[in-house]
Amino acid sequence: MRRGLILSIEKVSLTTYAFLYAGAVLFFAIVYLSMPMGNGLIATPGTSPQEIGFGTALYFSATTITTLCYGDVDPIGWSRGIASIEGLVGLTFFGIMLTKATGSRLSYHVYRLFVSHAENRLDQFCSQAKKIETDLRALLELTTTAFPETPTKLPENAGTKPPAQSEFLKSFADAIASLHTFSLGFCRYLKTESEEGFLADSPEHALVKASDDVSLTIFVLKQIFLALSNQAKAAVLTETNWKRVTELLNHWQQISKTISNQSKNAEMKAHFQAIGDMSRSLSESFFSVPRDVKRQPDQEFPSGEL
């Protein structure tokens, strides 16, 4: 709401404010003339309010809205309160017009700085997403080595796991931790930009590029789950990994819905909608039922297609 008010003020031209300022002077002059007996203006002691003409009322209104108030015309009765209101209106208009007159170039530079900062932040998120995607693709290639066949029973002792499997489990946990941290940070950034009203000013090409990198990361993550057997999934999805994956998928679904509803750019909406659909598909395919590895070591995990 605050951001919307600022944008509304900035969109109005300085010429429009000047006309509104002059209109306020004229409006209050008419109000002073319309006041009943004993509540209008008085020029000198002993002069009745009816003897105050439009010119004098206009003069008093102009000196009041500019807060000059020479004192040769005084308000009486209700006009005192009206004069106070006019003074506040004048100060508000003066502040806005002064800012418009001197701050147009400054606003342009501030906008350029914001766009540059937003683009740098989004580039950083893209770099993080690409690194995580690379790590996940390396894990995808290791799945057949780490889990060559579906075991009849999950190993009860971690020390009995083959070296390739132990390496895969450790790398998988590290990749999920990185993806979780990245997703929460990126979603928090997008949510803040959206709530503050700055999302519309963010560079659209950078947002689209970042959304593509996120989509690829989620896509590779789902390919890993599709490549693993049910018992292998039970091995890699420890309680911590399960919680992290579920959390990050929920965050992406929420932020996808928010941006799809608020963004006016059709391409951006489509890209983030794709993230939401992919996250929902992955969540429904592998994380729609509660997990308890200790009590259900041979739990079956439903599979799904993208």
Explain this structure to me?
There is one protein chain. The protein is mainly α and 306 residues long. It has two domains: 2-76, no CATH class; 109-286, Delta-Endotoxin, domain 1 (Up-down Bundle). It has helices spanning 2-11, 14-34, 54-65, 78-146, 163-195, 204-227, 230-236, 239-262, 266-286; strands at 41-42, 74-75. A two-stranded antiparallel sheet has the order 1-2. Helix 2 runs antiparallel to helix 4. The longest helix has 69 residues, at 78-146.
Structure in a nutshell:
This protein is mainly α and 306 residues long. It has helices at residues 2-11, 14-34, 54-65, 78-146, 163-195, 204-227, 230-236, 239-262, 266-286; strands at 41-42, 74-75. The chain folds into two domains: 2-76, no CATH class; 109-286, Delta-Endotoxin, domain 1 (Up-down Bundle), CATH 1.20.190.
Structural class: mainly alpha
Gyration radius over CA: 33 Å
Shape: rod-shaped
Number of strands: 2
Biggest β-sheet: strands ordered side by side in the sheet = 1-2
Unreliable parts: 150-155, 293-306
Strand-and-helix sequence, N→C? Answer: HHEHEHHHHHH
Instruction: Briefly note the CATH topology name of the largest domain.
Output: Delta-Endotoxin, domain 1
At the first level of CATH, the class of the largest domain is Mainly Alpha
**Number of separate helices:** 9
Overall CATH architecture of the largest domain: Up-down Bundle
How far apart are the termini?
A: 39 Å
Largest sheet: 2 strands, antiparallel
Question: Proportion of β residues?
Answer: under 5%
The portion of residues assigned to helices is over 70%
What is the count of structural domains?
A: 2
Arithmetic mean pLDDT: 80
